[in-house]
Amino acid sequence: MAKDPFDEILQFLKPDCRIDLKHLSLEHLLDITGTASGKEALLKNEEVVRTIIDLTDDCEIISKTALLILVNITSDAHGATELLKYRPHNKTNVVELFLGYVLDPKKSHADAACMILSNITRVENSVKVCLDTFIPHLEDLLKVLSNLNYNQCKSKLNYIAPLFSNLSCSARFRKWLTEPSMKQYPFIPLKKLIPFCNYVDSVIRRGGAVGTVRNLSFDTSYHEFLLSEDLDLLTYILPPIMGGEEYDDEEMEKLPVACQYYPTEKVRDNDEDIRRMIIETLNKLCAKKHGRETLRNNGVYYVLREYHKWEKNPAVLLACENVIDILIQKEDEVGAEDLSSVQVPEDMEEKFRKMDEDFLNSAP
Amino acid sequence: MSDKADDSKKPPMSEEERIALCQKLDEELDLFINSLERKRYTEGWPEDRWEEEMSKHPFFMKSVSPDGELSPLAEGLAQLKYDPEENTPLELATNYKEDGNFNFKHKNYRLAIMGYTEGIKVRSDDAEINASLYNNRAAANFHLENYRTALHDSERALSFNPEHTKARLRAAKSALAISKFDTCIEHCEKILQKQPKDKESLDLIDAAKKKQTLKERDQRKKYVLDTKKQVKKNAVVQAIIDRGITIDEREDGGDIDLSMLEPCIPGAETDMVRLDNGILKWPILFLYPEYQQTDFIRACPENVPIILQLEQIFPAPWDDKNTYSTKTINIYYEGTDSKPHLVNLKKNLGDILVEKYYVLKAGTPSFFCLERGSRMEKSYLEAYP
């Protein structure tokens, strides 16, 4: 069997090896993981991967590079799934190891550990596997996310938000998110998360929060909760799609109080994906009558009317039009109590899909 | 002599003799008492009014007599209670606290505050009594709706005892009452740290957040409306500058601002010149020296001939000779050259305002109207140098 070139480097990665050798070797490996083929090759050598995982606990300069290598490895689905198979000593799996780093206020480069967790959970099947490891630490993760100065080594830990977004594909996680916890105020974890939908300093954190809300909206059983007065969701998801436009007095009065009378300087969120996710959320919330009525009563139609004049991206415009079409009708015209349960005949479905495609392709 | 000797040799009494002797003594006593005069006991309080009498005694007084006078005994006792010589600071402070509590119970909040204040002045070392005094004074102030003071006193109480939940709750409520929403929320969250499910705190936080959102909205609304107003004002000023209308300025130089355009007529402040779809609309004044009359006309568009405004006025009610009409009058304005200038009635108001010698005073174009060829007109014109 041909000698695996990675085996050579192993000797320089031994724990008792000189730091500068370790560091150089790791930097070299980091470069290798910059390409897809490099990543694949590295993954094949289990010993090396195991060593890198162990080195994340080494001194700062070593652990930093080790963590970055793992970030690269987990950046695609294959690597993310592979890494989950490893078991560092004393831990059930790698997730527990990285969770430990995230929750350690003194860990430098905890951000990288956070990214790894986010990468791993992006693969939906992996969520099932590692959810049990996350469950006991969810409250702590939320506390850490909410405390902007938690990490003493300048890690912002913004990636906890997309981590939550990834986990929200699990029903158990959604249950935790939306049910009163007895441990701390405010009791409902989601309540602590949604203000971050407006967090200007990090598009990652913002995107994660919005993504979590969006995923929740796919489950119609949560709609009544999502639109409850206590949660005040619209106050947080409308601002990113609102600008400094003028509304009539009548229209203004309908908007949520916190969204009224924005100064002319107000700008919409500059991230297209976030805007798109918000429109998708609004769309989902229109599935049931209660949702449609709530959105109408809060002036969402007016917001979308102005938004439609501003948005340039064709896909988002289309999504926006879909919501407007629903909201603009009177309730008796809508014709279905729960739109998500309407069965679209296959041939019609194909026809609609083609119409959407044509619209998108025709845009200049 | 022989009797004495007999006494000493008497035998001791038997049991029966003793009993008989007791009974005899009892009977003799009863006889004696019954023979005494029956006199009533008048020294004590009358039976039917004993409670009333008792409440007047300084030892048992519950309240002071209406005129506030105390008997010397009562005064002496009172002074004893509040005498620094007779009490330790703690005792003194406690006495004042009791005094305050007494008044508080009877809803005399101002008197209660005085009592607590005296207790505070004692500056006892005991943290508990100080916390209590400040807390109680805060409560009294709260009842009097002195929310700022109530907040201050509550926070002073907390400085002596940070765990005083009642004081902290009152601090939160007082803060909310004076719209210090952040302070209210801070205090509530501290309470929730120890008692995570305290309903009052949770409700207060909700109320504070709602009020804060409303306050911020109102601030934004005001800003938007003020900016709009300012933009409108600036547009008017700019329109006037663009047309090159001369304005009478008392101050030297400087930009025209709207204060120079305020009409001098009381009640006309709302009729200041305005811009409507690019047309300036002016308030104007017609003066009739002959009859000492004036006409004030609102919102005359600049693109309308002045004759049309006059046609609305005539025939005028004060014109008993019926000599004033658009065909018979001349109208003049006083120019920058201090001379009267005749106005061509067919001209638009706006064109008149930009005539060479025209100057706008007090934001209100004014014109003198006189009958053409009349003596009045002659004397008016001669009045100018």
Automatic annotation (TrEMBL), chain A:
> What's the superkingdom here?
Eukaryota
SUPFAM superfamilies per the UniProt record, alphabetical = ARM repeat
Q: Ranges for the Protein HGH1 N-terminal domain?
A: 102-275
Indicate the segments forming the Protein HGH1 C-terminal domain, all copies.
281-333
Q: Which family does it belong to?
A: Belongs to the HGH1 family.
Kindly provide the name given to this protein in its UniProt entry: Protein HGH1 homolog
From TrEMBL, chain B:
Q: Which residues cross the membrane?
A: none
Q: Which UniProt keywords apply?
A: Repeat, TPR repeat
Q: Which InterPro entries match?
A: Csn1/TTC4_wheel (IPR044059), TPR-like_helical_dom_sf (IPR011990), TPR_rpt (IPR019734)
Q: Which SMART domains match?
A: TPR
Domain Cns1/TTC4 wheel, chain residue ranges per copy: 279-382
Which Gene3D superfamilies does the annotation name? Tetratricopeptide repeat domain
* KW Ion transport (keyword) present: no
TPR repeat spans: 131-164
At the top level, the lineage of the source is Eukaryota
Family assignment from sequence similarity? Belongs to the TTC4 family.
State the name under which the record lists this protein: DNA polymerase interacting tetratricopeptide repeat-containing, protein of 47 kDa
Q: What lineage is this protein's organism placed in? A: Eukaryota, Metazoa, Ecdysozoa, Arthropoda, Hexapoda
Which gene carries the instructions for this protein?
LOC112056325
